[in-house]
Design a protein that fits this description.
This protein is 61% helix and 8% strand. It is α+β, with helices and mostly antiparallel strands. It has a five-stranded mixed beta sheet, with helices on one face. Helix 6 packs antiparallel against helix 7. It is rod-shaped, with a radius of gyration of 44 Å.
């Protein structure tokens, strides 16, 4: 039965055994047996302990001596082969000591005049010294092997053909030393790369932690400014509405409306500040951050709360970046909040902002009485100093000689335009 015969809405599944590969499909070429054998040997060698691999040299050379030498030569050749090759088992632990032992065995071999294939142990020992020691040790070991090659070639060459074997042996000695030095350089380079990668990873981790700490400080500073200012205004307006509810209901109603507006503004500011941390929060885009243009609303809000505030803005504020305008707004907001909280009724405040292409000067003063003793510690003035420092400014906050309090700073727009407000 075909799919059409099955009726509407009932599709028959396709059988997997009917799916055939196209004739021109590219199939992977078979891997030769020799390649598979080499790969398996490499994997096995990588898992094998180093001393086990080094033990193969004595075993293979001794097996070669046993199978190729006559029985009467076997004791001497086997002893010399063992003396030349057995120290290679510990060549990774003590390369210089092993080289000295192998060189001594080779000298004894030359004295007894028995040429052996185990002389390759000298090249292995030289390679190990070059791969683990410095340049001076490599030169000394290479000179020892080359010096030993000269009398060996003189004694064991036939028909006077001395030069060609000596050149070949010397070239082999140089190749072994150079190979070992290259291995040592490669290991040092890889170790330096690993150390650099670890150091970079540590630096990135530290930078990430500093960024998190800086962001937490910024959020805490924003929340402090928003909550402290708006709650202070709302408390003052609530007290005013409570006192005026019987004597002047209209003023009480106006105060309650201002409380509601202040609360909504505080919620908007909090959503804007916290919305930066969330990608799905649209409030940060719908409501731009407050700037110098919002200082008039801030001054009116303070006047309604009971702090008559006079605002004076000079210069072209449109040339000031948005982040710097937010900094100016927060500085003025915190300064007025401190004046409102720490001065009695009847105090007047004055805000002066001067804008230019290079700097923005902020000056907030009041005519309140001097505070008795030292002002209580808090986060307001330190937070203002941090904001000013982000734009290369130094904030000055302190009492005036004739009474009152002053907060003054100058922001440099060219030094912190990208800094966090």
């Amino acid at each position: 039965m075909t799919e059409a015969d099955a009726g509407p809405g009932r599709a028959q599944p396709v059988r997997q055994d009917r799916v055939r590969h196209p004739r021109n499909a590219v199939r992977p070429a078979p891997v030769p047996a020799a390649v598979r054998l080499v790969r398996a040997a490499r994997r096995w060698g990588a898992r094998m302990p180093p001393m086990v691999g080094d033990s193969l040299w004595p075993a293979l050379l001794l097996l070669h001596i046993v199978t190729t030498r006559a029985p009467r030569e076997l004791p001497v050749t086997a002893a010399l082969t063992a003396a030349l090759t057995l120290p290679l088992v510990w060549r990774r632990l003590a390369p210089r000591t092993v080289f000295a032992a192998v060189a001594a065995a080779a000298f004894v071999q030359w004295l007894v005049n028995v040429p052996l294939p185990a002389d390759i142990a000298l090249l292995v020992a030289l390679y190990t010294v070059a791969a683990t020691s410095g340049r001076r040790g490599t030169l000394v070991a290479g000179a020892v092997v080359a010096a030993g090659a000269l009398p060996a070639c003189l004694r064991w060459t036939t028909d006077g053909a001395f030069l060609a074997p000596f050149v070949a042996v010397t070239a082999t000695v140089v190749c072994a030393a150079v190979l070992g030095m290259n291995v040592r350089t490669t290991r040092a380079y890889l170790a330096a790369l690993e150390e650099r990668a670890a150091r970079l990873e540590q630096q990135q981790d530290q930078q990430a932690r500093l960024a998190v700490a800086e962001e937490r400080t910024r959020i805490a500073r924003e929340m402090h400014d928003i909550v402290t200012h708006n709650l202070s205004v709302m408390v003052a307006l609530t007290d005013a509405a409570r006192y005026a509810q019987h004597r002047s209901p209209d003023k009480a109603t106006t105060a309650m409306l201002q409380i509601s507006e202040t609360g909504r503004q505080a919620l908007t500011d909090m959503r804007r500040s916290l919305g930066i941390l969330r990608t799905d929060e649209p409030d940060a885009e719908r409501h731009p951050p407050p700037g110098i243009a919002h200082l008039r609303t801030l001054a009116d809000q303070m006047c309604a709360a009971g702090l008559p505030t006079r605002l004076e803005v000079r210069g072209d504020r449109t040339r000031v970046p948005a982040t710097a305008q937010l900094t100016v707004y927060r500085l003025v907001q915190e300064a007025l909040t401190n004046t409102f909280r720490h001065t009695p009724a009847g105090t007047h405040a004055r805000v002066r902002v001067r804008c230019s292409a290079e700097t923005v000067t902020v000056d907030v003063t009041d005519d309140g009485p001097p505070l008795p003793g030292t002002p209580p510690p808090g986060h307001g003035i330190p937070g203002m100093r941090e904001r000013a420092a982000a734009y290369g400014g130094t904030l000055v906050a302190g009492p005036l000689p004739g009474g009152g309090w002053r907060v003054h700073t100058r922001l440099r727009l060219g030094s912190g335009g990208a800094a966090s407000a």
